[in-house]
Amino acid sequence: MSGDTELSRIGISLPKNLLDKFDEILALRGYSSRSEGIRDSIRNYITHFQWISDVKGERQGVITMVYDHDQRGLLQTLIDIQHQYTGNIQASLHSHVTHSKCLEVILVRGDGTILKDITEKLMAQKGVEAVKLTTIPIEG
């Protein structure tokens, strides 16, 4: 545990299907315990947050999002968020993965802080399972 000196115990509640998937991945990756997997997941989450926080300046990129099409009101909320940023969203592609799961790819351009705002608003919605922002700087 690189640099960790004091442990804290926490309790969390998870849907059974999410925990089952997590346990499956832990077994495939050879983790010795859930705690080890959760610590690794939290470290990855922190690293991702720090990486996305460094997105500054004029950028071109893509937001990929997976969400539950059957989540009540979600589709309209996602559309409303995208309409708030019509100056930054260049195009989007929507794909039906299953009856209820959708994949959306959104091409974006603009200041990195605005692109992060779009990403975080999408990520915060109930029914959105995954969101990832990938950008490159626009060289003048």
From TrEMBL:
InterPro entries from the UniProt entry: Acetolactate_synth/TF_NikR_C (IPR027271), ACT-like_dom_sf (IPR045865), Arc_rbn_hlx_hlx (IPR013321), CopG (IPR002145), CopG/NikR_regulator (IPR050192), Ni_resp_reg_NikR (IPR022988), Ribbon_hlx_hlx (IPR010985), TF_NikR_Ni-bd_C (IPR014864)
Positions bound to Ni(2+): H83, H94, H96, C102
Residue ranges annotated for the Transcription factor NikR nickel binding C-terminal domain, each copy included: 61-136
Record text on cofactor binding: Binds 1 nickel ion per subunit.
The protein's required cofactors: Ni(2+)
Molecular functions (GO terms): DNA binding; DNA-binding transcription factor activity; nickel cation binding
Keywords: DNA-binding, Metal-binding, Nickel, Transcription, Transcription regulation
GO biological process: response to nickel cation
Key word Transcription present: yes
Record-annotated Ribbon-helix-helix protein CopG domain positions: 9-47
SUPFAM superfamilies assigned to the protein according to its UniProt record, in alphabetical order: ACT-like, Ribbon-helix-helix
KW Membrane (keyword) present: no
Entry similarity comment: Belongs to the transcriptional regulatory CopG/NikR family.
NCBIfam families noted in UniProt: PRK01002.1, PRK02967.1, PRK04460.1
Family matches, as HAMAP family: NikR
Function as written in the Swiss-Prot or TrEMBL entry: Transcriptional regulator.
Protein name listed in UniProt: Putative nickel-responsive regulator
Protein's organism: Methanoculleus receptaculi
Source species taxonomy: Archaea, Methanobacteriati, Methanobacteriota, Stenosarchaea group, Methanomicrobia
Gene: nikR
